[in-house]
Design a protein that fits this description.
By secondary structure, this protein is α/β, with parallel strands linked by helices. It has 13 helices and 26 strands. The protein folds into three domains: 256 residues, TIM Barrel (Alpha-Beta Barrel); 70 residues, Roll (SH3 type barrels), CATH 2.30.30.40; 125 residues, SH3 type barrels (Roll), CATH 2.30.30.170. It is elongated, with a radius of gyration of 32 Å.
């Protein structure tokens, strides 16, 4: 037979895996303290209605050993009456009221109120002194949880490692989260009896989260009471498992947005092949611009590609995202430079002149390219073995057009020189022969009028000139 300890470990691991695979949990800090008095039923109900998975609450122990729901040991701030919880019986504390008229609640009252609502779940913080008092808090907590059968509807978190260790002994099946304002407090001893950590937003980083996940520990994030909703613009970019927030509605909104996206690891050095600067956003969901931009022909390391609402974005750093069109692997640099700054023209001798809104969607026809009218190539995108070119009215496959090389520098790149830098067997084969280059004249001084692909003229004695110095930013 399996021991209770093994079974409880399996339950804890299953709980962690659930959160790792189903997005982050939204936990209302003291309910929704912005819209209702903290840690009241009104505050908790507001948070649940706004999409919170859990509400967070704090516990103290009264003089007669009742678990009291309150963040402060002195109730003056929330009730207007100076009363130290540990110095008063609960019969007196329950006569004190918050601004909305609700009395101070005990944990038993809370559980009784929500026992028939299976969606009401609670993150319970045990408030302890530096000397670890009160000593009986965890025992009282177990009695209350067992009485109302709340084992599957609660989690614990605390600044007190001692409290969490005792909870691991009394209730090993319930997740335990260590709160830390500095990473120095997180050590292997603490990690041996907790299932996760709750880190200040001032110290959490993707690297720390990845390390915790490697050790099969969940990562939650909390902020001070002066939290502002705009912090979500960057917080949502990290692979957190949960967040304790004063704005559960905002947290739920960002979670839904993130759930609608699909993230793919990319991890490549790239160059941006577009003629226009691109704005850099804090995240791909709200598109709030930063002060930075993507510059043409600049090099960037792309860690992830995010697909959201039919568009793709590249992640350039922790809180920097840009539209993905035009970002190509640095391995394609020399092959794509002849297109950069050049023009495309359709001479009616290629298979078709279809333009597309999305080069990867054959059903996104945008029209046709006009005949014999050169158009500036605005963006270049390598997709598999094919090169796609964005023109003013849509994307066209490069194999269906001819390229008019440009002898002028565009952002430091000369497309004609870039073409001749390549070995002859690597040069693009669809150069427009009607462009009027003098080196494409035949020996009898007649201009070449055949517009077949350039591969038919590989025997001509082309002159390769040394490229001008050009400015190319390093990755």
């Amino acid at each position: 037979m399996h021991s209770k300890k093994i079974i409880s470990v399996n339950i804890a691991v299953a709980f962690i895996i659930f959160f790792f695979s189903s997005g982050f949990a939204v936990i209302g800090h003291r309910g929704d303290p912005v819209k209702a008095p903290e840690e009241t039923f009104q505050s908790f109900d507001t948070a649940f209605n706004e999409g919170a998975d859990y509400v967070e609450l704090d516990l103290h122990v009264s003089k007669d050993n009742v678990l009291v729901v309150s963040h402060d040991r002195n109730l003056e701030r929330i009730t207007g009456v100076p009363a130290i919880v540990s110095q008063q019986n609960f019969s007196y504390l329950s006569t004190l009221h918050q601004k909305n008229g609700e009395p101070v609640h005990s944990l038993d009252e809370l559980f009784a109120h929500y026992k028939d609502n299976p969606n009401a779940k609670f993150l319970i913080e045990t408030k302890k002194t530096k000397k670890g008092s009160p000593k009986n808090m965890e025992d009282l907590l177990k009695v209350s949880i067992d009485k109302y059968q709340m084992q599957d509807r609660v989690m614990f978190h605390s600044f007190s490692a001692e409290s969490l260790k005792k909870e691991s002994e009394l209730m090993p099946e319930i997740p335990r989260i260590f709160i830390a304002g500095t990473i120095k407090r997180v050590n292997f001893d603490v990690l041996s009896y907790v299932t996760g950590v709750n880190l200040s937003s001032n110290i959490v980083t993707p690297e720390i989260i990845n390390d915790m996940h490697y050790m099969h520990k969940s990562v939650y994030v909390w902020d001070e009471m002066n939290e502002i909703p705009s912090k979500w613009n960057t917080l949502v970019n990290m692979p957190i498992d949960g967040v304790v927030t004063n704005f559960p509605a905002t947290g739920n909104e960002y979670r839904k947005l993130k759930d609608e996206s699909k993230e793919t690891s990319f991890d490549q050095n790239t160059y941006y092949f577009g003629l226009k600067e691109l704005p850099i956003y804090e995240n791909p969901y709200k598109l709030i611009k930063t002060k930075k931009v993507v510059h043409p022909l600049d090099g960037y390391h792309v860690s992830n590609i995010i697909r959201f609402k039919g568009k793709k974005y590249v992640q350039l750093s922790e809180n920097q995202f840009a539209l993905a069109d035009g970002f190509n692997s640095d391995a394609e640099l020399s092959q794509l430079r002849p297109y950069f700054g050049a023009k495309a023209i359709y001479r009616a001798e290629q298979p078709n002149n279809f333009l597309y809104k999305d080069p990867q969607d054959s059903n996104s026809l945008a029209g046709r390219m006009p005949i014999n009218k050169p158009q500036t190539i605005e963006t270049i995108q390598k997709i598999g073995s094919e090169t796609w070119l964005q023109l003013s009215d849509g994307w066209v496959n490069s194999k269906n057009v001819l390229i008019q090389l440009n002898s002028d520098k565009v952002y430091g790149n000369n497309s004609k020189h870039s073409y001749f830098e390549l070995p002859s067997n690597q040069r693009i084969k669809n150069v427009d022969l009607l462009q009027g280059f003098t080196y494409l004249k035949s020996n009898n001084d007649q201009k070449v009028t055949n517009v077949d692909l350039l591969k038919q003229f590989n025997h001509l004695p082309f002159v390769t000139s040394k490229p001008d110095n050009y400015s190319m930013n390093k990755i």
